[in-house]
Amino acid sequence: MIRFRIDKHSGVPAYRQLVDQVREALQLGLLQPGDQLPTVREVVEQITINPNTVHRAYRELEHLGLTEGRTGQGTFVQRSLASVGTRQRATLQRQLVSWIGRARAAGAGDDEMQAMFSAAVREAAEEVETA
Amino acid sequence: MIRFRIDKHSGVPAYRQLVDQVREALQLGLLQPGDQLPTVREVVEQITINPNTVHRAYRELEHLGLTEGRTGQGTFVQRSLASVGTRQRATLQRQLVSWIGRARAAGAGDDEMQAMFSAAVREAAEEVETA
Amino acid sequence: MIRFRIDKHSGVPAYRQLVDQVREALQLGLLQPGDQLPTVREVVEQITINPNTVHRAYRELEHLGLTEGRTGQGTFVQRSLASVGTRQRATLQRQLVSWIGRARAAGAGDDEMQAMFSAAVREAAEEVETA
Amino acid sequence: MIRFRIDKHSGVPAYRQLVDQVREALQLGLLQPGDQLPTVREVVEQITINPNTVHRAYRELEHLGLTEGRTGQGTFVQRSLASVGTRQRATLQRQLVSWIGRARAAGAGDDEMQAMFSAAVREAAEEVETA
DNA sequence: GTGGTCTAGACCACA
DNA sequence: GTGGTCTAGACCACA
After folding, report:
1. How confident is the prediction for chain D on average, in pLDDT?
2. Which of D16, D88, D116 is nearest residue C93 as measured by Cβ atoms?
3. Percent of chain D's residues with pLDDT above 90
4. Hey, what long-range contacts does B40-46 have (CB within 8 A, 24 or more apart)?
């Protein structure tokens, strides 16, 4: 079962953080079609948040076609967002962890690594466009 | 000179996006102490944004000790956020670009790569804590 | 400027009624791209409804790509839903009004006419499928 | 025998959709006094719905004086809602189907036709009021 | 018990 | 002033 966390200082609205976390779990294959999300009440018990905010996040997910709310039963994953196979993803992930080790050794903090990653994604995108 | 971009649909407040972009540029060494930020007027000309919003972002940056407003002259970078040397960063960045190439080949989209990266950072952080 | 009305006894949620009314106005060409919707506060003054409910309707419309909320300015129509030209629509509409006259003369009430219309749409759809 | 259908995304409560469909069938003369409605069990077999929901709809219909539940036998239509004779209705319906053909040819979708119909009904109502 | 809608009201971001 | 987010809490529909 997915566990949510809210960073109040990120500037990102709470409902949006929930949506992003579900999407990320779908992209990582941690959530599969048929899986149940925690009920609104369970989320409220787990993190300090208003039921309406959770509800809004779930509504947004349903709007995206990712989940389905079934009254009296709960909210269920409708479709996957993982386009990479489990094995390949494990390999890629391992390579990233090792890269992070090297970046850390070079003195980089989390923000700095994220900055490099974002820059690299943009750079790679430009290469593709140019080619 | 740094170029700003605003994503209206990201949910992140505009002033916060500006702050984040300056911080990212500092982390990547694209902005160095002494460099000048575009004036409020220049930013307004470049992107559709209210001068007040730019002002607010610059105030925030000054509050963070990252920049300094010099009356009549403009806003200047005060200190760096890049803890990795230029050469090492170039190497790390190159490795990331090549990783992205492999991830793309495996079918991953940008969101999916970002998800893997975030997960890897969290995983690496846990390893450090455990060790 | 579009005027909203809420039928509390219809069983249709209020926010949904607002959405439907905007869509209908778009389909009839009564609202055009660039037109402004009443502000949330204006709607609240016009009909008895909670600002949040109006807001939800407007959010839904934005989600559908039909409108865009501009902070400090208002909510504006983004695209049209009218695929029939004004002149042709006027002709078709006139024919319907005259049909309604005949149906009324035959004793039909509004619900009954609506029932006939729905049935006719379904029937026509089946003919298309069969053909 | 009437066949029910539920549109989960319409926002209209399921029990209300059942009630509306029976009323429509009564208005179209498809259900006549004396006709039997499907039993709760039959409805549950036909569509995915909770028996309680069907019960509630049937209770509502009885409350409206439209049907009568006879213990051990089933639910039967009590009175009609069709005020137009069968022959006249057939004529009116045929005219509508032909109108729909022309509207389709002009490029109108189902929603757009429904919008025109609703507008025409309102327009005709105003004419009556004015006269 | 679970999701869905709505009201009331506060506070923030932006123009 | 206008839209956007969030909390608090009530009530309904459905399983």
Report:
1. 95
2. D116
3. 90
4. B43/B4, B43/B18, B46/B3, B46/B4
User: For residue range C94-103, what is the model confidence (pLDDT) as tens digits?
Assistant: 999 999 999 9
CA nearest to nucleotide F7 C1': residue: A50
Contact (CB<8Å) C115/D84: no
Q: Kindly tell me the burial class for residue C57, based on how many C-beta atoms sit within 10 Å of its own C-beta (0-12, 13-18, 19 or more).
A: buried
E8 C1' to C6 CA distance, Å: 20
Among the partner-chain residues C28, C114, C123, the one whose CB lies closest to the CB of D115 is C28
In tens, the pLDDT along D5-22 reads 999 999 999 999 999 999
Give the number of C-alpha atoms closer than 13 A to the C-alpha of residue A2, restricted to the C-beta side.
26
Under an 8 A CB cutoff, do B84 and A92 touch? no
What is the side-by-side order of every strand in the sheet holding C36-37? C36-37, C74-77, C67-70
The per-residue pLDDT for range B24-74, each reduced to its tens digit, is 999 999 999 999 999 999 999 999 999 999 999 999 999 999 999 999 899
- Do residues C37 and C74 touch, judged by C-beta distance below 8 A? yes
What is the reported pTM?
0.93
CB D84 to CB C107 under 8 A? yes
Helix (H) or strand (E) holding C69: strand C67-70
Dist CA A104 CA A110 (whole Å) = 8
Beta bridge partners of D74: D70
Tokens of A75: 């909210």
pLDDT of residue A60: 97
Neighbour tally for C63: CB within 10 Å? 13
